[in-house]
Amino acid sequence: MPSKSAVPAGNLLDELQTALTHGTVARRVETLRRVTDLFVNGAVDYSDRQVELFDDVFQCLIEQIEVSAKVLLANRLAPIDTAPPRTIRQLASDEAIEVAGPVLSRSERLDDATLIEAAQNSSQAHLLAISNRRALSGAVTDVLVLRGNDEVVQNTVNNPGAEFTENGFTRLVSRAEGNDSLATCVGLRPNLPRHLYLKLLAKASVMVRQRLEAANPKQAADVSGAVREATRRARTGMTKQTEIAHALVKSLYEDGRLDEQQIAEFAEDGKFDEANAAIAVLANVPVSTAENMMIETRAEGVMILCKVSSLSWPTVKAIISMRDKLSSGAPTDLASSKATYERLRPSTAQQVLRFHRMQQSAADTPAA
After folding, report:
1. Could you tell me which of 318, 316, 319 has the C-alpha nearest to residue 340?
2. Which residues contact 238 (CB under 8 A, 6 or more apart)?
3. Cβ neighbours of residue 13 under 8 Å, at least 6 residues apart?
C-alpha cells in the first residue's frame, strides 16, 4: 500500500490515460472515485506539487461525467482546506447548484475574487449558498446585498461571520423599509454605523411596534419597552468609530484647525460622523441635535445647520451629496436647494435651530 506522503504518479497517470482513451463514462467515474479516495486519505500530507498533480487529474476526469458524480466530488473536496484549487473553482462555477453549492458554502480554497464573480453571475440559489459561508468579507456581502433576493439578504444579515461595508449597510437600511424581519436583524448588527441606525429606527420603529403588537398582543408591553430602549440607544449609543471621529473633531477645533475646508474634505470623503460633529461644533449645538437634522429625509435640516455655521454653497453641496450617497435615496434637487440656501437668512436659520434644540430637550426629558 503506498504511503500518504508519496503519490503514485505513474499509476495514476496510466489509469487516467486508459480511462480517457478507452474508458466509458462509467470507467471515468470509477477512476474519479479511486483518485478522490487517494487524495482525501492523504490530503494533509501532500505537498503543493502533489496537489497540483491531483488538480491536473481531476480536471481531466470531471469532463463528460454525469452531475451525480460531480456532486459526490464536490461534497468530498469542499471541507478540505488543501483541495486542488482549479478543481474547486470549476466546481464552484458549475450551473448545477447541487455541484456548486457545497463548494460555495464551505470551501476555504475560494478567494474573494472567485466568490464575487460567482455572486455577480450565478443564480439566487448560488448566492444563498455563498451567504452560508463561515466568514464573508464586506466586498462579497456588497454583491449579495445588491443582487440577492429577500431570502439571500436575510440569510446574509443573519450570518454572524458576515462583514458589511458602509455602502452595504446603506443598501440594507433601504431594503429594510417595509420589511419588519430584516429591519430588526439589521438593527441588531453590532457594527451598523450610528447615523444609519438612526435612519433605520426613524423609518421602522413605529411600524415594527404596530405589527408585533398586532401579531401577539400579550407581548405589547415588551415590544413598547424594546422600542423605548432602541430610542435610548439612538440618543446615547456610540460606536467606537463614532467616538474616534468626535475625538478627532474636538482636537481639530481646540487646535484652531477646524474650518470650512476641513468640513468639505470630510463630506467629500464620505465621513459622516466627522462632518456631523464638525458642523455641530460650528453651529454650537449638541452632536445629537445636528445628527437628527442631518438624517432628515429632506435637506432643510442640513441647510439650517450650514447657514448658522456660515458655510458656502460648495461645502453645503458636498454635504448634501454625501447624504444622498449614504442614503441611496432619491437624489436631492441641488439647483432648488441652492436657491433655497441663498434665500435663507441667518436669523431665520437661528430661529429654526432654536426650535430644534427645544424639541431635542423635550425628547431627552423623561416623562413624569
Report:
1. 316
2. 194, 246
3. 57
In a domain, 300, yes or no: yes
Task: Give the cell for residue 215.
Answer: 401579531
Strand-pair partners of 162? 136
User: What digits encode the pLDDT tens for the residues 189-200?
Assistant: 878 887 787 777
Q: How many domains does the chain have?
A: 2
Question: Does residue 221 sit within a domain?
Answer: no
Give every CB contact of residue 4 below 8 A, 6+ residues apart in sequence.
41, 42, 45, 46
Question: Which one of 67, 93, 110 terminates a domain?
Answer: 110
Would 227 be classed as within a structural domain? no
Number of other residues whose CB lies within 10 A of the CB of residue 78: 21
Whole-number Å distance between alpha carbons of 208 and 217: 13
Cell of 285: 449645538
Question: Is 100 within 8 Å of 122 (Cβ atoms)?
Answer: yes
Last residue of a domain, one of 60, 89, 110: 110
| Confidence label for 226 from pLDDT (cuts 50, 70 and 90) | very low
Nearest to 34 by CA among 58, 51, 3: 58
Q: What's the rounded Cα separation, in Å, for the pair 201 and 204?
A: 5
Q: Would you mind telling me the total number of residues written for the chain in this entry?
A: 368
Q: What is the pTM of this model?
A: 0.62
Determine the 3-state secondary structure of 148 from DSSP: coil
Give yes or no for a contact between 193 and 166, defined as CB atoms under 8 angstroms apart: yes
Residue 12 located in a structural domain:
yes
The pLDDT of 317-329, averaged and rounded, is 83
Contact between 157 and 147 (Cβ < 8 Å): no
Let me know: does 225 contact 212? Beta carbons within 8 Å: no
Q: Which domain holds residue 273?
A: 240-364
